[in-house]
Amino acid sequence: MASKICALLIVFVHNVYGQRQLFITPSLGMAFPLSHTIIPANGDKGYRANTFDFGASLDLSLQYQLNQHWIIFAGWRAGSDTGISFLYGDINTDYQKGRYSTSSYTSRLPVGVQRHLTTQKWFKLTRRGTTFKNIAGDKNEDMLYLVLFRLRMLAGFSYNYTVPMTDDNQLSSFSSGTLTYNVIERNTVSASLGFTLQFFDYEKNHIQLTMLYSQGLSQVLRSTVNYELLSGNHEATIGSRGSYLSIQLGYPIKLVDFSKRRERKI
Question: Could you give the angle at the alpha carbon of 61 between the alpha carbons of 7 and 261, nearest 5°?
């Protein structure tokens, strides 16, 4: 599905904007599943949703660069980024604090766009100034800086499928109680917004750092938690829309430079 959408987008923009560059970008990262409280655990002063535990994620993205400002992308993402987590207990009242988290493997098919915001050049190296002056022919001032990166904003949508797990819709236990992990909907859609730092050197792309927030548009999980502390028995209901925060590192690999092909034909 994602490959068909990407192909249609590439054909469309190719006809409108002309030939540009095509990249494939593999990425590895950390995903922080986000959950929310539906019914709080009354009487437990230490209760709150989200422990910000994280899991690994893998992303493979096909990116088509239209020009210096716009990129469209589509791909596949997988990771344990759908789940619930919570803190419980109060040191002063219960003489203990605890935490619990669990997540489900989710496969996602994202599509979207990136928009260039600014190019940053940091830490000018004065010692390279003399070498730069002695260079004959075309000169590139990028060699005078230690860190070069392009800041881009990205936005898009994704189709998500939460993969079945052995403990889905069953009663599970943890150190202080029990919980049910109910999957309400496996096929969902989410919207994403984030920023990408594309590091480069002399116009060649290197490491790509992406910080992303994804917001699920419908409920995926609902969990009822029961636990016992010195302060009494407590019950809470926690939900998840499949939302998450992620930080990932990637490396764009150029597949085709259509602009150079066009120049050779001319």
Answer: 60
Structurally, the chain folds into a number of domains equal to 1
Q: Which two tokens stand for residue 182?
A: 């109910």
36 beta partners: 239
Instruction: Kindly list the distances between the CA atom of residue 97 and the CA atoms of 74, 94, 113, 209, in Å, as whole numbers in the listed order.
Output: 43, 8, 43, 35
d(CA 255, CA 93): 61
Alpha-carbon distance of 29 to 110, in angstroms, equals 16
Q: What DSSP state is assigned to residue 259?
A: H
Q: In this structure, what token pair is assigned to residue 241?
A: 């829309």
> 196 lies in which domain range?
2-265
Taking the C-alpha atoms of residue 173 and residue 150, their distance in angstroms, rounded to an integer, is 47
**Domain containing 193 — which CATH number?**
2.40.160.20
Q: What is the largest CA-CA distance in the chain?
A: 80
Name, in order, each residue with C-beta under 8 angstroms of 118's C-beta and a sequence gap of 6 or more: 150, 151
pLDDT tens, residue order, the chain (266 aa): 555 555 555 555 454 445 588 999 999 999 999 999 999 988 888 899 998 888 899 999 999 999 889 999 999 999 999 999 999 988 888 788 889 998 889 999 999 999 999 988 887 776 655 555 555 445 556 666 778 899 999 999 999 999 988 777 888 888 888 998 899 999 999 999 999 999 988 778 889 999 999 999 999 999 999 998 888 899 999 999 999 999 999 999 999 887 665 555 54
Determine the Cα–Cα distance for residues 77 and 246; give it in Å rounded to an integer: 12
